[in-house]
Amino acid sequence: KGYEYVNRTTPCVVCHSGRYQDDDDVDDLTCKLCPAGFFIADDQEDESFHTAQSDCLECEAGTFSDLGARYCGTCPAGKHVNDSLALKTCSECAPGRFSASAGQDTCGPCGRGMHQDLPGKAYCLPCIPGRANNLTAQVECTACAPGRLSQNTRAEACTDCPRGAHQPDKSSAS
User: 158 and 113 in contact (C-beta within 8 Å)?
Assistant: First the structure.
């Protein structure tokens, strides 16, 4: 256990990092990979770290690993650790959501007056004048209707034109 068969003339070697061997009675044996979300850092130093799948250590919260990993990594900004189906992988934030820093477990929703139409972003964009948005997690800002306007960025609502003014166009800032 903990060793891998090389060939008939070479002695067996300790499994590489991210691998283990829990069988010892089979010819032509190769080490097994730790599952995604788990790792073994030892690289052929100590066979006792490679004798069972339970030797594969689970990645900490906010980190992930692929199959057969030596270490766990941190998801970059714009991504989050997706641990659905019991596999910890790095996934892009969905449109309308963001992750401003590395190592996040979840992506937060864009706030009111903000939006993001692309996946995998570390930021949300403000609604520009003439557009508004009063909901969170939105992929776009809504154009102000004729007779209504928004003059500031990050507007949460369009307002009626001032008394005596008229705005016939959609999406107006003035």
Answer: no
